[in-house]
Structure formats: C-alpha cells, structure tokens
Amino acid sequence: MANCNHKCGDCNQSCDERDLTIKPHKSSSIKKVIAIASGKGGVGKSLVTSLLAVLLKRKGYNTAILDADITGPSIPKVFGVTSKAIGNKEGLLPNDTSTGIKIMSSNLLLKNDTDPIIWRGPVIANLLNQFWSEVIWPDIDFMFVDMPPGTGDVPLTVFQSMSVDGIIIVTSPQELVSMIVSKAVKMAKMMNIPVLGVVENMSYLECDECKHQIKIFGESNVDKVAKEFGLNVLAKLPLDPKIPALSDKGRIEDVQTPHLDKAVSMLEDLPVNVMTIAVPVAGTKIDAHLGQAKTFNLYQVVKGMVVNGFRLDLEVAGPDKAIEAFVENSVNVVLVTKMGAHIMEAMTENNISVATGATGDPLNAVHKFIDHELNITTEANCGCGSTDHEHSHQEDHEEDSCDCGHEEHECDCGHEEHDCCCGHNEHECDCDHDEDDDCCCGHDEHKCDCK
Predict the structure, then answer these.
(1) Domains of the chain and any CATH numbers
(2) Residue 366 gets which letter from DSSP?
C-alpha cells in the first residue's frame, strides 16, 4: 500500500490483507527485478550486483542498479560515478556509468560522498520507495537491487513495495554459511519470492603460476547447504586481487570473469510475466462495437508498466475472428465499452478476461485498468440499459440489429439511420407519409421527421 507509514501499532489491517506494492514511475519500463541479498554483511553483495549488471550489459541487455544500501552505499564508487543525480518536471533521473548502466544511490544525492546518513528505518524506507516510484527507469531489461545485510526494514520494504522476480543469495565459505542462507531463504519464503540460487564469494585463491586453489577460509559448505534448501549454486567466486584494484579506481566495468556465466544464463532464461491487453479501436479512439472492429491496439504490460504496443489488423471483422486473433497473440485481457453475453461467454472459454466501460483514448484506458479504475467483470453489458439480461440476445446480427442482438427501436446504441421520431424502426412504423393523416406518433405529417 503506497500510503503505508510503517507504523504498524496504529494500523487496523493485516499486511496479508493489503497489496503493499508501489507502482513504478509512469515513464519507467522494467522487465525483471533481481534482489541481491544476504543474511549478514561483508560477503560481497555489491560486487556480485555490479558484476551481474556489467556482464548482462555486455550481452546487449539494458541493465540498472538500485542501491538499496542507503546508509552504506558503494555502487557509485565502484563504477566511478561522481556526478550528482538530476531531475526534471517528470521525475528523478538515474546516472549513467561509462557503458550506460543506469544507477541510483543515496550517495548521488549527498553534497559530499563522505557525509553519513543518520536516519531511522521509516525515513530510509520512504527514500527507497521514491527510488522505485519517482525515478524514471527507461527500457530496463534487468534491474539489480543491491540490498543491505540482514532482514530488517530495508529488505522488508523492497520485497513488499517492488515487484521482485527473484533473490540471489551471496555467502562466503565459512561455518556461518548455513545461518546466512537459512535467514535469507526463510525471509524470501515468508515474502513469497523465489530464491534463484546461491553465489559463494571468496571461495578460494588461485595461484597465478600453477592454478592451485588455496582455500583461505576453509573448505566450502555451500554445496551441502544449497542441497539442504533445494537451491542451485550459481557460482564460486575466487579471491582475485585485480577486482578490488579495479573497483577502487571506479573501473569495475573492466573486470573480466567467467565465473558468473551460469548465473547470467539463468537470468536470461528467467521468464518475464507479461500481460497482453487488447483494445478495439476506430481511428484514435476506442471502438464501442467489438464485434464490428477490424483494428485492435495490443499493449504488453510488465509490473504495472506498458513496455510495448503494436497494432493488430483483422481481414474480416467479427467476434469469432477477434477471439481467434487474441488467442494467437496471447491476449490476457480485453478492454471494451460493452459486451454481450454470448461474446463474454466465448471470451471466458478461451481464458480471456474482460473489463467493460472503456471509452476514449485506448492507452488511457489501459492505464485506468492498471490503476484498478477499470476492473475485470464476468457480467455482460451490451449497452442496452439492462443489467440482468433477461431479455433475449440474437446470436446473428442482422443489418437492422445492434451488436447486442436487439432491434434498433429497443436499443440505445445510436442507429439513427432508420429511426423514426416515434421510436419505431422504419420497417415497423405504420405512418403513411404520403397521406394527409397524422403520424402514429401524434405529429402532423409535415412536422414529423419519420423516414
């Protein structure tokens, strides 16, 4: 819930009963969000975060880092970013690294990098929410969230407020590994977020000459612990003096390492939860008659953000043709002005949800749906004014019928071409306009506009 003040003592609702997810900025587009976490500090979360962003960027993906370690930020330093964050009237803008990775960190907001942030938990949580909702993150394939250690306010805020796709746990080869992984896994389970795997940092030191591996911190326990929790070991990173040397110079993007290849491949294969929304259009506006529409705008929505849009043209109009095209294009939801019972039933049979009441600009209607101003319904609404639908709908639409199945004189769909001012359809009106008698509506013939 966006207006949560984190003061649970005076709250009369259970968090389980509320959606605490906060919408990203309206101009943001983020496909996958990966949190890099651990049950304790000093294990190398920022290193793993940075390297994953760098390696995926090299493969052509647009990557970003949200530095959630508000009181101990290190991301700007390792990337050599010193310029302060700026914004415009739309929102705050992330800084770019030398290769184009987008980053946002509390250090980019401070006058001096060495100034401490001495804030309480709720204030830190609010800043994190602003990093998500007020920063414009454009066209991001992978966002990595560099988490602070532990399971306190900040991890809770991230997991509740942001649409996190998965967590990668970072640990080290010590007896503490079981406790570190156990805490992180249990929190992820409580927050219903999948753990994607474990990365062991400082696993060994490799001799440059003979390639012998020296286990400085003892034998690794990560395989045993990962098996205990049913997790994949994604990498065992060695102690490499070249990496901290480059990081200190702000040149982490120059690091070459093959050790995270498995983690990178796993992330590439991670499915994106995409919702495809179809809207019938006539010109630039929503077409009120789905059954007569030949053109549809399709929008792909990820995490409450419209990330793509394209046009779908039918050769032949009709509900059956439209539904067939929806199935072929994996449409999940159709936004319409109205819909009759038989079309609604066909949509349901094809696992397509329907929201009625959409009018005007199609993209605006999509945003209204995302904001829950338009909601999924299973109740037909053909626009004829009836809500119980005890009246009969025609299955086949004749020329003088509305798309809800009613004759024109029974429907308010606006078929003026054959309407008599008395309310009768032309073919049912018994007014003889060639005679000098009155029309059945009570008008004298010269005053009547019946055709």
Answers:
(1) 16-269 (3.40.50.300), 275-370 (3.30.420.130), 420-451 (no CATH)
(2) H
